[in-house]
Amino acid sequence: MAQQTDIRAGGASLRPPAHDTSVLDNAVWAALDGPHAHLAERVGRAARYPADVYAFAALADPRDPAAWADLLTLVGPGTTVRIKPVETVPEDWEVIGGGVGVQLVDTALHAEPAPEAVRLGPDDVPEILDLVARTRPGPFLKRTIELGTYLGIREEGRLIALAGERLRPPGWTEISAVCTDPAHRGRGLATRLVRAVAAGIRERGDIPFLHAAADNANAIRLYESIGFTLRRRSPILLVRSPGTSRAAGAL
């Protein structure tokens, strides 16, 4: 079972979230079944984002065999799927990779607009993809920008830092794709963008949260230092559906 961490730091209670945190236990499903339903490819109790938006699928209840059957119907046989948080899979599904992620929630973040930040749109995607390829903050695909607001900082016309919104479970919005060009690190650009994205999230009544790889100690340390608190650790699995695919395919 995924480890839960009380929302505390240094033994002192921090400001608790105003919304139910339980939806964050299965955040991808909660988003696809809620605010991102218009993007969902869904069969019964299984859903996924389009392959060029976000490379994850989700189950209403990972312990439910019927949900896995729905996922097989959705993706087809012999298909590779990324899914979280899932710890065990049915015997006929093959685990071919995975890792561990952490989830952090806003408990004391100072959110404020960044006057130098600009909103990014579809025309900026090639430049975003270039920055993401060089900094590797996590998945960003051709249509990921449709998931929410993305802000960037430019210098001499060149995009040098980025942050935006990804998952939207009810009452919450994930901050994602936080990255800075290596030549411009150490200036607090990522922190300013996180605060600015968070300000927009809070303005519409949601609470910011985010994910990071469990072994990314530097990122976790940064997020905790600006007001996020570690909530849970959970597995991320890359699995292959049973059967033989007629054509190779992957999410």
Beta-strand percentage?
A: 25-35%
> Treating each run of at least 4 consecutive H or I residues as one helix, how many helices?
5
What is the helical fraction, as a range of percent?
A: 10-25%
Query: How many beta-strand segments?
Result: 13
Distance from N terminus to C terminus (CA atoms, Å) equals 26 Å
**Tell me about the biggest sheet?**
8 strands, mixed
Low-confidence stretches: 1-17
Strand order, main sheet: write it out. 6-13-7-12-11-10-9-8
Order of helices and strands: EEHEEEHEEEHEEEHEHE
- Oligomer designation: single chain
Name the shape in a single word. Answer: globular
Category from helices, strands and their pairing: alpha+beta
Radius of gyration: 18 Å
Overall mean pLDDT stands at 91
Walk me through what this model shows.
The protein has five helices and 13 strands. With 251 residues, it is of the alpha+beta class. The chain has helices spanning 27-32, 65-75, 125-135, 189-203, 217-225, and strands spanning 8-9, 12-13, 41-43, 46-48, 57-59, 80-83, 94-106, 118-119, 150-155, 158-165, 172-180, 207-213, 228-240. It is globular and about 50 Å long. An eight-stranded mixed β-sheet has the order 6-13-7-12-11-10-9-8, with helices on both faces. Strands 3-4-5 form a three-stranded antiparallel β-sheet. A hairpin with a 6-residue loop joins strand 10 and strand 11 (172-180). Residues 1-17 have low confidence and may be disordered.
